[in-house]
Amino acid sequence: TRAYARVAVNGRFNENLEGLDTELEAGDRVALMYPFMFCC
Questions:
Q1: Is 1 a domain residue?
Q2: How many folded domains does the chain comprise?
Q3: By residue range, what is the domain housing residue 14?
Q4: pLDDT per position as a tens digit, 1-40
């Protein structure tokens, strides 16, 4: 199995922003979440 996590910046998934190119600023909150936690 592969390790996998979803990344959220300020509560928004990074693929809805600029993907891995999303620039962070001071005060941003970053979360690593289990892939399917958001849907249940």
A1: no
A2: 1
A3: 6-39
A4: 566 778 899 988 887 888 888 899 999 999 988 776 555 5
